[in-house]
Amino acid sequence: MKKILILVLCVGMSGTAVSQVWQPVSSAIGFSVKMLGVTVNGSFKGLAATLKFNPEAPTTGSIAASVDAATIETENTLRNRHLREKEDFFEVAKYPKISLKSTKIEKGANGYIGYFDMTIKAITKNVKVPFTFSEANNKATFSGTFKINRKDWAIGGNTFGMSDDVTIRLTVNAVSK
Question: pTM for this structure?
Answer without folding.
Answer: 0.88
